[in-house]
Design brief:
By secondary structure, the protein is α+β, with helices and mostly antiparallel strands. It is built from two helices and six strands.
Length: 97
């Protein structure tokens, strides 16, 4: 039985193009949804990826290679901004129509 996962990732816009290109090169289908908000009102997008459980390690590796956490300093102090925030959810059923 194939176990499917849904990955929802909120990613800084500056990493989106390289991420999508890398996923497509690895034959991983990805959907981009424009979104807004986030820490310091920085630009971001949401990626949705349906993947088999055995692909999670490869997908994690791509995210870690392309995105980076950055240190930001403001008058309120020093902060770290994640390059991506990733959620992995079990999928009960997956269909392509």
């Amino acid at each position: 039985m194939i176990i499917m996962k849904m990955i929802i990732a909120i990613v800084q816009d500056k990493f989106i193009d390289e991420l999508i290109d890398t996923f497509l090169d690895e034959d991983i289908h990805v959907t981009k949804v424009s979104s807004s908000g986030g820490f310091f009102k920085s630009g971001n997008s949401t990626l949705m990826i349906g993947a088999e459980e055995n692909e999670l390690e490869k997908i994690d590796s791509i995210f870690r290679k392309v995105t980076k956490t950055e240190a930001v300093e403001t008058e309120k102090g020093k902060f770290e901004i994640s390059g991506a925030t990733i959620f992995v959810i079990d999928v009960e059923k997956s269909m392509r129509i």
